[in-house]
Amino acid sequence: MFWALPALAQLAPRQRQVVESASSIAVKSTSSTTARPLSERFAATRDPRDFGAIVDGRSDDTEAWNLAIAAIEREGGGVLFVPPGTSRVEGPLKYKGDNLSIVGSGYVSAIVKFSLRGNLFDFSGNKYLFDSFLLDAPNDASAGTLFALNTSTGNVTIGKVLIDGGYNVLALNKGAQLHISDSTFNNFVHDGIRPGAAWGGLTTIHDVIMNVDGAVNRGACLFFEAGDTFTLTNINAASCHYPIKLMPPPSTALLNVFATNVLADGVGRRDSGGPGWTIDGTAAGSALRRVRITNSWAGINYEDGFKIVGSDDVAITNSIAINNRRNGIYAAKSSTNMKFIGNSITGSSFGAPGAYSGIRIDSAVSNFLILGNSIRPIAGVDNTQNYGIDIEGPGNGRYIIRDNDLDGNRAAAIKDGGISLARQSGANIGVREAAGISVTKTFGKADGTGGTFTLVFTSGLLTSSTC
After folding, report:
1. DSSP assignment string, 222-285
2. What is the pLDDT of residue 340?
3. pTM to 2 decimals?
4. 15, 45, 269, 328 from 21: Cα distances, Å
């Protein structure tokens, strides 16, 4: 319960005159050159305390927050102030309009949610800003989304927000234009940032930390399903089941993903997990195209560092894959037009020495360049990789393998079963001149006869064949 001022009509004439005079006083803020009436300034920002919020961290302030939000909606948009202290808000907070900013005074402005289920911000409009506050939710939540934004045109900005806990953090529907910066998302149970299958793209995420080593995560830190143009810079995605997941569903397209200084790390994960980077366009019919990953990291993941399946035009450059339990880079299922340049790959097959390799290319993968990579043991990292480069074949076509340092891997530098007539290879360190690499294939004919042929590669070049 809270005190309310009497209506202006109920006041005595002299009292009305005082209130009207005070409301009309023009006040200039510290950094402004323009004075505005107090009535206008108070109307511009709504504070849940003016609608009955206690802000003691124990009393449920949900109703007061919804009253403040409803007032903003009636006015066609505005600012909701997150007051200093701790507001317990169980949600859902409902808003169906556009142009809402929820702004605090930094991490002294806190929201706490105790419920294990349900959405918190449950909005169905567009043009939202969330800035400068702390949000704390259970790290064993079982359902719900903290920012459930059922947008139609999009335009969402999140900055300087610290989140700990929750089930899903951010889910978007349609539209485009998402900007997230200078924020931390920790200890959520399922997905961190997930625009939906109808999302249009134009997404920028930079200077964001996502670390869930305080929760058992079953989802992805970053999960993109559809849209065009995603720019990811300076992101730490750690301990999620899938740190980074690019996986469009059927009848969608995911295009133009540019990642720089992005870490996909399994350190601190509480149970098993997937690859560091999942780049999988098989469900969408290879409508996953143009992915550029540079100066980035895939380390200590339960599967491959980088897994590329059914995708087109993927480049990984100047990046590190270290101590992943399977391959450092794995490409499969009709992926094509790939470049792996200047990367450092070591410690693959971690925990199962000799089972996996630095780079593995499955059959039916073509048009790829493997150039200038260091794929070998280094000091302080166990020698676990089977081959430096493992080309499984058959069916690999048009590929170049040059100028890689492949010395010291357990089985050999290169296993090449691709048998590509359009293949060029050479100048790879660690390929042995004396023994070469022998590839034997068995073939059969319709009449039941058949035979074998053997090709021998020395320094990565075809030097002899027998049939």
Report:
1. EEE-SEEEEEEEEEEEES-SEEEEE---TT--EEEEEEEEEEEE-TT-SS----SEEEE-TTTT
2. 98
3. 0.84
4. 10, 21, 62, 72
